[in-house]
């Protein structure tokens, strides 16, 4: 079954462990672990040097990733976008975490991810 045809809970079963890895790798500032599930396009827009400075900056300003709460799944013909409510350890308030997941050659890959 195509990714977009799956129920939310089935999509979350795939995407939650991927997002967990992204956040853990970001916390550890581990570039190779962070990009392991990226498409080539996504890898191309996040060079190692940028990753290190982005992680250092958000950790200094906001702390580390805390709780994450599912908000919605948006289905597209070739991908799904998943949105969560995200909290940090140092600052109050809610942030948005989003991830675009695609399926390539039978594997689920991240084509875009951001927390803002």
Structure write-up:
The chain is α+β, with helices and mostly antiparallel strands and 116 residues long. The protein has one domain (3-115): Roll (Nuclear Transport Factor 2, Chain: A). It has helices at residues 8-28, 31-34, 40-44, 48-62; strands spanning 65-75, 79-88, 95-104, 107-115. It has a four-stranded antiparallel beta sheet with strand order 1-2-3-4. 17% of the residues are buried. The model has no long low-confidence stretch (mean pLDDT 96).
Termini separation comes to 31 Å
Overall pLDDT metric = 96
What is the second-level CATH architecture? Roll
Question: What's the count of strands?
Answer: 4
Strand portion = 25-35%
CATH fold annotation: Nuclear Transport Factor 2, Chain: A
Q: In CATH's first tier, which class applies?
A: Alpha Beta
How many H/I helical runs? 4
Return the structural class.
alpha+beta
Low-confidence stretches: none
- In sequence order, what are the helices and strands, one letter per element? HHHHEEEE
Number of domains: 1
Give the strand line-up of the largest sheet.
1-2-3-4
Biggest sheet overview: 4 strands, antiparallel
- Give the overall shape: globular
Helix content: 25-40%
Radius of gyration: 14 Å
């Amino acid at each position: 079954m195509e990714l977009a045809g799956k129920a939310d809970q089935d999509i979350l079963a795939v995407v939650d462990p991927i997002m967990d890895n992204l956040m853990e790798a970001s916390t550890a500032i581990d570039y190779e672990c962070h990009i392991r599930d990226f498409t080539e396009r996504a890898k191309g827009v996040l060079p190692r040097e940028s990753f290190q400075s982005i992680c250092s900056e958000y950790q200094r300003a906001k702390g580390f990733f805390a709780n994450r709460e599912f908000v919605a799944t948006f289905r597209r013909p070739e991908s799904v976008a998943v949105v969560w409510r995200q909290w940090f350890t140092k600052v109050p308030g809610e942030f948005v975490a989003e991830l675009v997941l695609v399926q390539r050659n039978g594997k689920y890959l991240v084509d875009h991810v951001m927390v803002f």
